[in-house]
Structures are given as structure tokens and as C-alpha cells.
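Recap from last week: sequence in, structure out.
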Amino acid sequence: MDSVLSQLAIYLTAGVVAVPISQRLGFGSILGYLMAGLVIGPLLGLVGGETAAVQDYAEYGVVLMLFLIGLEMHPRTLWDLRHRLLGLGGMQLLLTVPLLAAGARLWGMPWNEAVAAGMVLALSSTAIVMQTLSEERLLQTEGGRATVAVLLFQDVAAVPMLALLPLLALGAAPHAAPPAGAHGIEAMAELSPWSQLGLVVAAVALVVVGGRYLARPIYRFLSLGRLPEVHVAAALLLVVAVSLMMQLLGLSPALGSFLAGVVLGGSAYRHELEADLGPFKGLLMGLFFITVGAGIDLDRVLAQPGRLLAATLTLFTLKMAVLWLLARVFRLPPQARVLFTLALAQGGEFGFVLLGFAAATGVIASGTADALLLVIAASMVLTPGLFLARKRLAGRLGERGRRAAEPPEAGGTVIVAGMGRFGQTVNRILSALGHSAVLLDSQPATVERMRALGIRAYLGDVDRAGMLEAAGIAEARALVLAIDDPERALRVVRYVGRRYPHVRIIARARDRHAVYQMTAAGASRCVREVFDSAVRAGGHALAALGHEPREVEALLRDFAAKDTRMIAELAALWRPDLAAEENAAFLAREREQAAAIEAALRASAEAEAQAQAEARAKAEVAAAGPER
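Predicted C-alpha cells:
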């Protein structure tokens, strides 16, 4: 246990120290994780043999990442990518594999090893590319979507590659135990092709039908306990179950999780899932990159640094040539072309799996496999530098990635938290004028009722930081807090006011005291939930006492304006560490205001009555004029 805790402390310390420094220097988080792994592994020797085992668990970060990316993709968006998915993805492999195989032959490999090396090196790093695109907000650009299409096709193609590799062995060695992910292929191989196809179709159908029809009753059941950790466990179980099913069928777990994400992307539970899984994804992805850095054989690198660098640069050059050609053929704009070419030039983490399988089946000699593993790792380590080069090039050309149109439900400039009577009224006003909003509520029944009316509401507790981030608080212009829990609302106001000062917070307040608290916490505007209705009720009472409608409207307008100004003055004097009755300055000003507002209303009423009397007198004179 002590060993496990010490190793965990080493990994966490490396990430906590290295990543902020890397971010500060402008290199991004991935390079920080890779360098952290390099330091604690080859340089200091603090971690060693357990790195491969840790990496097996850390790879689930890639699975979670693709699930979360799937949540952001509407099925219509994925359908729009079909041509690029098959065209760009298929052509990239068809051209890259033989080109890399030819390059490997020039390096002296036998033809079967060269073809296997071409298949291994043709794949790109889903983990690094997706993480970087997400961090730099390039996923919705044309280049970003083209890159995602190729990565998804590679995930599909990796499965038949695993099946084809043993055919290249030429009887060189007996088959050894396949790596993780290959067991399903051996089991499926015993079935007929039609049975294999039927199982795959059934698995995909199960994911689609389950996501569409089972999510609602499951979340209604989970909401009975009101325990956030149960929601988190359910979200993790969903991803693990889908991944396990896909792996048993010989398919990519990451691809299965992506499909599940797409199915659930339009559901009411999208933001809840993002908030539950986001921290796990980030932690596991960071751990994965650290293990990549820690797994580099520094002795071999130092033994032949020139040869390794030349092989890595050759890999970059050949893959970039194919990618640039495809970008031109598919008419990507210049900025998207640069991103597409530089993003996919490295080797990928699935190449480690293919390489291990190729070595185990005798397709590639162990020494060659070790050299190729170093080339893949080196290319992954150098990839953040390619993204930095893309930034420099884009800045020099004065070009920025142009965002593709997002589906209307992808986000909004206003977040409305709480879909009771208060929040629904706010949303009706916004939607009537064509403004989009992200609507959140913690009650599944309320969310389902809204969706039955065609309103895109999402399940989630707004006082969870992850939920707000998933809902898009970083890009929002306003947050309307319509929840009826003052303590929760106050926590949200403090958090948003501190982390996102650009967001205007319009908060529902139960009473004047709540207004003071919210204003001190950072709310831009507070709306007392019964104030306006009470003012209107007072107006009806004045009308019943004989006051003219015009006089009532003027009095109400004057009263509301003066009361709002007085509340703002009192909020400036309010102190959270003192009760109102102990705050002398606050009490004195409140007494002055009460007297002032009564005097002002009486004066306003007298002036209005005088004006109406003069108006009646003039009317009487005008009416009597002709008679005279």
C-alpha cells in the first residue's frame, strides 16, 4: 500500500508542478505532462516497471474524452461529416500506409515488416490531438472537424488492421497472446462473417436504443436518492459498459463511447454527464501523457539520437505530404489546411497496441519494434511544438480558424438556472425575441415537461462548478438565477462573480436581505420575487379607493424607481459580519429612506391630484365656452 501511495504521489506531484509551468510558458498542458513523465521516469528513475500497467488504466481517459466529444456532436452534425469521414479518413490511410511502407523499405526493413510498420505509423494520436483541439477551441473549426473525421475513421480501421497483421507473419513465429483489445477479434473469428456483422449491428442498435429510451427512467430513478456520487457512478458505469461491449466484439472502445455520446448529446442529461465525467477525463488523460513520457527509453535515444531524429522527421514529412495533398483535394481553406496537416502528422497511442501485437505474432522483430515505439513516442512528444508552429504561422498569415455553424442547441449567450414559474417567464421573453438560452433545472420531471413542450432544457444542479462549465458559462453573457434556494443561489453568485467576472448575474431574491447578500457577492441585478406583484396589488387597492388609473400608474412607477435606488444605497452599507439591527449606519439610512419615500409619494399624489383638478377645471371652462 505504501508503494502504491508513493507512486501515486509522484505522478500527481509531477503533473501539478509541470503543467502550470508549461501553461505559463505558452507550451500547453500536454507538453507539460510529457515532460513531467520524462523527468520522473528516464531522468530521475522515480517510476519504472509499473508505467505500462498504469497506462492501461489511463487509456480510459481517451475513452471518456471521445464520449464527451460525442455529447457535443448532434447526429445531424455527424451525418454532415460522412463524406469527410469516408473520403478524408479512407484516403489518408490508403495513401499513407504504402508511402510509409516504402520509406521503411528504404531503411532496410523486409517488405512484410515495412507494410506492418506503415500500418502502425499511419495512425495518429487521438489523445493528444483531441485534447489540444479542445483546449484551443478548434473542434468547431473546419480544420478541426476534418481532423476529427480522420481520427474517427482511424479508430474504425485499427480493428481490421489488428486482424490483418498476423497474415504478414509468413510463419515467422507462433502466435502469442494478443494485447488488450485483440481478444474480441479472436473470439469473433470463430463466427461466420454474417454472424459477426449481425453482432456488430446489434451492439450499435443497443447503444442507440438504450441511449434514447433508457436514459430517462434511469435518471428518474437516480434522482430519488439526490446523491451526486451516485450520478457520477452511473455516468462512469455507462461508459465502461459500452466500452466493454465494444471490446468484446473486437471494436474500438473509444469508438463505442463516441457513438454513445452522440446518441445522448441531444438529451436532457448532456450537461449532467459532462459535469460528472469531465474531472475523470482530465485526470486520466494527464496520467496517460505522463506515462508516455515516462515510458521513453532514454538510453536508446542517447545511443542513436541522430537516427531517431531522422526517423521521426521522415515520419512527419511523409504524413504531412499526404495530409496537405488531401486538404487541397478536399478544398479546405488555407487556415484549416495548416491545422489539418500539422495536427495529424504524429504516431498514435493505438500504434503501441498494434506494435505489441505485431511483435508478439512475429511480424516485426523485437529490436525493430522497440525502435518504432521510440519513433511514435518521439513524434507524440514533438506534436505540441507543431501546434505552436501552427499558431505562429496563422498569426503571420493573419488567419484564424473560421468556426463552422453550430447546431442551435449547442449553446447560448444566456444561462437560465431554474425552470419554475420565474425561470419559464424569463425564457419566454428571451425566446420570443430569438435569443437562445441554456436552461437548467435539478428536477427530472420539470425538464421532461419542458422538453415535451419543445423547450430544450437540461438536467443539472447549477451550484456544481462542472455543470456551469459544461453549460458554457465561460462564453455566456448573462446568468439568470431563478432557483428558489437562497443559500445555493448565493454560492453560485460568489463562484461566478469570482471566476467569470464578465458574466452579468441577474439573481432572483426572496427579500431585501437576500438582495443585500447577492449584491455583495457580485450579482449585477437582483429581482425580488414578490416585489413587482406586490406593487401591482397596491395599485389595484388604490384604484378600489377611487384613484384614477393614470394617477395609479404614475405613483407605482415613482415608488418602484425610488425603492430600487434605496435598495442599492442600503446594499452599499450592508455588512455580512453584522446583523441589520447592529449596523448603525444601515439602520439610520433605512429610517431616512422610509420617511423620504412616504413624503415623496404623498407629494407625488398631491401633485397628480392638483394636475388632474386643473385639467378638469380647464375642461369645464372649455365646455362652458360656447354657451356663453
